[in-house]
Structure formats: structure tokens, C-alpha cells
Amino acid sequence: MTVATSKAPKTPRTSQDGARLVKQCLAGDENAWSLLIDQHKALIYSIPIKYGLSQQEAADVFQATCTELLIRLPQLREPRRCQSG
Fold this sequence. Notes:
This protein is an all-alpha fold. The protein has helices spanning 18-26, 30-50, 55-72.
């Protein structure tokens, strides 16, 4: 499973129910993982930028956050909350 990419998707994606998306990710669905990350990319990037980090540092935070999410995905207490909107 790919951890994360910083490029925008070539085709538009739609929101999905968070619990179903997490379940698909846990089953190894790479498209679900891409959708999950795409839905939260702006939020993940905005926080380090807000604190004054450079674009490169924000990209490093993004990568670390995505890696941590991937590792801890099976332990989410409320997967349904893992959706955009």
C-alpha cells in the first residue's frame, strides 16, 4: 500500500462514509487509501503551514502524519469520523 502522494488526483473523487472507507483501507484497497488521504490532504498540510513551517517541512509533516495514520488505522475508535465534510 502506498503511504501518500503530494500530487493532486487526476480525476475528481467523492466523499464516502468514513467507516466504510477505513474498512476498505484495512482490507488493502489502495483506491480507498488514496481517497482517504485526498479527503484530508488540505487539513493535514494547513496545520504546519499555519505554524510557520516551510512547504518542504509541511510535506515532511504530511508524510509522517500519513504514515502514522496507516500504522494506527486498525486502532481507530471511531472510524466513521474519518471523513471529510
